[in-house]
Amino acid sequence: MEYVSTRDRSLRVSAAKAIATGIAPDGGLFCPTEFPRLSSGEWQALTGMDYKARAAFVLGKYLTDFTAEELKGFADKAYADEKFGGADTAPVVKLADGKYMLELWHGPTCAFKDMALQMLPHLLTASLRKTGETRTACILVATSGDTGKAALDGFADVPGTKIMVYYPVDGVSTIQKLQMVTQEGANVAVCAIRGNFDDAQSAVKRIFTDKGTLDKLDREGLTLSSANSINWGRLAPQIAYYISAYCDLVNRGEVKMGDPINVCVPTGNFGNILAAYFAKQMGLPVNKFICASNQNNVLTDFFKKGGTYDRNRDFYTTASPSMDILISSNLERLLFYVSGQNDKAVAEMMASLSSSGKYTLARELFARVEAEFDAGCADDAATAETIRRLFQQEHYLCDTHTAVAVKVYEDYRARTGDCTPAVIASTASPFKFCQSVIEALGGTVDTDGVGLLGQLSGMTGVPAPAPLAALAGKEPRFDMVVDKDDILSTTGLLRDL
To answer: Is residue 113 annotated as part of the catalytic site, yes or no?
Structure first.
């Protein structure tokens, strides 16, 4: 299978090259030229596999220049039982009214990003070998909170790599910041950006496209790559958990093979819900994708107001910081497919987004999007109320991002009457956002730092995840803060790692 840039289909590369490069030279995103379809026999076979085997099988459909043995080995290491608390890597928990919580946060950093970022280091280092790359890969990551720690944990002390993470200085939770600035490893570095996530993301993209910086790194034996979901190697592993969730529902008799489900995802950069869309192209029977946003509802407006994407709006710092995003990079991949892989049209829309901050889909293209997607948003008050109600009524404790998805799904169901069973992506442990969850439950925060874990656990009787409790006593290693315009100066740190 070959991969092409969303902005220039004449640029065709292998899966390994797409992963090693991260982003296309023209600024586009690499996409498979076709979607592999799973046969009925393959679906049946998948129901009999554990998560590791399912992940390797799904990846094998896309990464055709990797052997089945390679992918099985990578999956066994990435999703080792000791990393995910057991063999049930991504459990599906049944709640009332047809809600099924797909818990994606049982990995080492307690967020859904582990599902891909425990796999990506294996894929990337293998891709570098397959493409004959001898330079050290420098992984640059912009994060709104969870990706940073997950990437740092995945790449820490991986030979042949260095990793630099950038986060908005006031845009992550206390626990998220502690996770990043205390990260161990000789090849890791962390830097705060004065601004929001979009500022950090734009600044990192500037590094990727600055010829002077790239030439200097090349002379020093370094090459850039990305662990954000712009990298195909980061997005592809996420497809597997939607297929796995469906297999689990079939095995438990919750749905019959072939019965449709809905999928609701709390969404910022659009990668997680896009992975579900890709799973549908492989044969996952999805009736409707429900895109859930917080007060930064640029995606809700896009889906509900005729296909105009307009980032020219106020930016809000919310209780669900990983969704505080106004430039949803992975939406570009959806546009590529609904336009019939029209690279010229996508390039024009992205140029318009860059110059004016907005673009509008042609009516016939938006009709294709509207047929697949619904959307909604929830502000912090609605998010808090959902956390409180879920815990009181069902004794289910969720984080702020998951609560956004639950609220938006419930609103969708009430509005449409659609009672199709719904898989809701639960994207982080509630203990990563202790202050917001404590306050949502009616408590008053009486401590800070790691002490918040104990307060929330005491209120709820739910134990804090071991990886977060282990933050106690750790000293910060990184305290660098820069303006977004000074981003190029930080690349010097890569040489010192």
So the answer is: yes
